[in-house]
Protein: Sensor domain-containing protein
Amino acid sequence: MSMRIRTSALTALTVAALAAGTVLTAPAAGAAPKAAAPKFLSASQLPPHPTSSWTAGPVTDGFPEGLGFCVSTEGVPSYDYRHREFRTDLDTSAVQLTVVTGTAAQAKALAKHYDDLIRTCADRIEESSPDIEAEGRDYGSLPVEEGARVRGLHTETSWGATDVALLSVGRDGRTVTVVEWGQMGDFDDAPVAAFKKTTTTAVNKLY
Structure:
């Protein structure tokens, strides 16, 4: 999703669009015990850009703002959130989130919760703003660790801005990872095969 959309229409949608998310329940001591931190993608493992190389930012504690238009921490226990953002010299960006939960069962529930939010994101965007048309696509599951799923999202505003994003959710044990790639354009511009490879790498690389 491009920065233009994030900072305009979708920014205004974030709270309303995510209000419909499923609430997860967990024990009060939901935070995971400290263990080896999951590893992140490197810049070279993102879908290749035809004219610009990727640059990776530092691994940072907390939830990335860039995922807020489809995924959030609302209704989710205080797990260990870390993220890394990526960018090119042009209007293409990416982000990876890792979430360490307390148990494999909690991670399974969280992965389903995030996938449900991504699956319903287009409908929630359109319900929240008459100025944006949104379409979601399901690109299927991936046989990696405890599984992963890839989906796409295209938005077009009434003033002509079009953006496409690929999002995936995967799990390894009690850790969930979410990866997002986005740029200006439509589904024809989305590198689905390369993003599936990136998602597989992201899940395999966690531990």
User: Anything to note?
Assistant: The CA atoms of residues 119 and 136 lie 7 Å apart. Residues 1-29 have pLDDT under 50 and may be disordered.
